[in-house]
């Protein structure tokens, strides 16, 4: 199962969990399962059918631009991270 890391600002909305094993095949599936376990958390991760503005997802060590559609392997790590801008 993918290992999902909960960012510190969201841990209080996930009963203090820092990481969880989630049985899902896409990032969207991860978010759906997080919502099932921790009602209301979805609003902090997703805006409709997209990731919330200012949020990125890294699978293993690679940032993805596929958002909720990003496919996952059973042994991957999923990290939700704030977007970083600048120039």
From TrEMBL:
It comes from Maioricimonas rarisocia. This is ThiS family protein. It comes from the Bacteria.
């Amino acid at each position: 199962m993918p290992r999902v890391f909960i960012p510190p600002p969201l841990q209080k909305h996930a009963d203090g969990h820092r990481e969880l094993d989630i049985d899902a095949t896409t990032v969207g599936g991860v978010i759906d399962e997080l919502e099932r376990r921790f009602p209301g958390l979805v609003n902090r991760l997703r805006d409709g059918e997209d990731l919330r503005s200012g949020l990125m997802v890294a699978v293993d060590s690679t940032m993805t631009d596929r958002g909720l559609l990003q496919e996952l392997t059973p042994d991957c790590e999923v990290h939700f991270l704030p977007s970083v801008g600048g120039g």
